[in-house]
C-alpha cells in the first residue's frame, strides 16, 4: 500500500516513518507537516493509506478529509481521544492515540490491509495472524506503568469524563485515560455490552437483571433506555 504521513509534530513523523519502514507491505511516498500542503498531492496521486493527525494548526485532519476528492484509507494518529467517535463516523480504519506502540500500529495496518487486499494476510508472513477478536487481554496505562488486564477478569467499566475505571474480579479497579467508546469498540465482540452512557458490563458476570438495573458483584448498574433494547436482544430477553 502506498502511504502518506500528515502530522505537524516532527517526532511523530519520524516515529511513523520508522514504523512504516518495518512493514514491507507499506511504501511511504510522502510526508507533510500540515494538511493544506497535502490536499493537492492526494488529489493528484494514487495514495492507498494516510496516517493522519487531527489537531493541526489552521487546517485540521477532519477539515482535510472533507476537502480531498479522493478518499484513501485513513488511520488517525492523535494525542487526543476526544475525536474517536467523529473519526469512526468518517470511516477511519482505526484511531491511534499517541504515544503509539509498534504492536498497535501494526494491528491498524492489518485492518487496512484486510480492507485493501483481503488475501494479504495469507501472503504476508510478517503480519501476525492473531486477530483482535482472538486476543483475550489488553494493556492500559495506569500512573507510570502499562497494566495487563485479562478480559475475563473485568466485571464492568465506568466512564468518568476523560478517564475510565476498570473494575476487576480481585475487587480492585484500574483508572486509565481512554475513552469509553474506544473500549466499547474493542470489547463489543468479546462478551461485553454497553448498558448506559457511563457503563460497559461483562455479560458473563451478571448475577441478575431488573427492568432498569443489572447486578454485577454487589454493584447495581443502571440500564438506560437508549441501550436497553440492544442489550436485551443480545441476552435474548
Automatic annotation (TrEMBL):
This is LytTR family DNA-binding domain-containing protein. PANTHER family: STAGE 0 SPORULATION PROTEIN A HOMOLOG, TRANSCRIPTIONAL REGULATOR-RELATED. It comes from Flavobacterium calami. Keywords: DNA-binding, Phosphoprotein. InterPro entries: CheY-like_superfamily (IPR011006), LytR-like (IPR046947), LytTR_DNA-bd_dom (IPR007492), Sig_transdc_resp-reg_receiver (IPR001789). SMART domains: LytTR, REC. One of its GO terms (molecular function) is DNA binding. The modification 4-aspartylphosphate is found at residue 53.
